[in-house]
Design brief:
By secondary structure, the protein is of the alpha/beta class. It contains 9 helices and 11 strands. The chain has 2 domains: 3-82, Winged helix-like DNA-binding domain superfamily/Winged helix DNA-binding domain (Arc Repressor Mutant, subunit A), CATH 1.10.10; 86-306, D-Maltodextrin-Binding Protein, domain 2. InterPro entries: LysR-type_TF_proteobact-type, LysR_HTH_N, LysR_subst-bd, WH-like_DNA-bd_sf, WH_DNA-bd_sf.
Length: 306
């Protein structure tokens, strides 16, 4: 089989459309279609079924995927070796998917340091409030808030992080007393849009009976800015609070949450020395940055503890 045809096959399998594959490869959809047809003819098997939703793998196509990915990994490894990928420096492009809280408050400092050390490296941070599909190569690596239970993936725990209820002093000064969790019913709560919570680990307010907050967003950054504007009380990451020093923690004795970040990679990339070195440096940087930022939240005390 021709590698160029296998490359086109993988792009269609991951995007499920000819146009999506063409964008990734710099080819027009008609050319992609011809290459798929040529591969199917040479293999003597139907690899895709076309439907209104796009191109779905047949049973034969699904069998070909791991072999095509193995060829892709071998070629990538050869390219890394030829350009010095076995050395200490990193180069080329790496796309990293992450939830927007991590992407906004942790990754800028970590990625800047990695790129300072590796001037030939290009890192793209894709910040989206959802789970990334590495099988479709939406990213080379992804950071998740829970450990995936399915898929051909390798998973590494990065670090725990903490969250607390916070509010602006101006809001608290004019709001009803907040002495316990039961008092939240009398307060404006800021949180996630309930039907857009993409991971159960993000359902901070559901157990409190506040799963339909009057002010909500699918973005952690928007929630934090609502709280900074004095909109109400809500759960915030401790690592984000140094970027919002006007906010104070409340009810720390009643609610203190711990969650974890996980680094997720496609199983086929396990032998990529380049991605492994990047993953190691990323993990070290994230652990240090979370610890550094969380250590700076001590001054943002709970006014109820005063």
């Amino acid at each position: 089989m021709d590698w160029d045809d296998l490359r086109v096959f993988l792009a269609v399998a991951r995007t499920e459309t000819l146009s999506g594959a063409g964008k990734r490869l710099g080819l027009d959809p008609a050319t992609v279609g011809r290459r798929v047809a040529r591969l199917e003819e040479g293999a003597g098997a139907r690899l895709f079924l076309k439907s209104p939703q796009g191109y779905a793998l047949t049973e034969e196509g699904a069998k070909l995927v791991p072999h095509a990915e193995a060829a892709e990994a071998a070629l990538t490894g050869a390219e890394e070796a030829l350009r010095g990928g076995g050395g200490t420096g990193l180069s080329g492009q790496i796309r990293l998917g992450a939830p927007d809280g991590c992407a906004n408050y942790i990754l800028p400092q970590v990625i800047r340091a990695i790129c300072d050390e590796n001037p030939a490296l290009e890192v793209q941070i894709v910040a989206l409030p959802r789970v990334f599909n590495l099988s479709r190569r939406e990213a080379d690596l992804a950071i998740g808030v829970s450990r995936p239970q399915a898929g051909r993936l390798t998973v590494q725990k990065l670090t725990d992080y903490r969250l607390h209820l916070v509010a602006h002093p101006d809001y608290l000064a004019h709001a009803p007393p907040l002495r316990g969790l039961a008092d939240l019913k009398a307060h404006r709560v800021v949180g996630y849009i309930a039907d857009m919570i993409f991971d159960k680990e993000l359902d901070y307010l559901g157990p409190l009976g506040a799963n339909t907050p009057p002010m909500a967003s699918n973005s952690v950054s928007v929630q934090l800015n609502l709280l900074r504007a004095g909109a109400g009380v809500g759960v915030a990451h401790d690592f984000a609070l140094p970027f919002a020093p006007e906010l104070v923690k409340v009810l720390t004795g009643s609610l203190s949450l711990t969650r974890a970040f996980w680094l997720i990679r496609h199983e086929g990339d396990a032998h990529s020395a380049r991605l492994s070195r990047f993953a190691d440096r990323l993990a070290q940087g994230i652990r240090r940055e979370v610890q550094r930022l969380e250590s700076r939240t001590c001054a943002q005390a709970d006014p109820q503890d005063a």
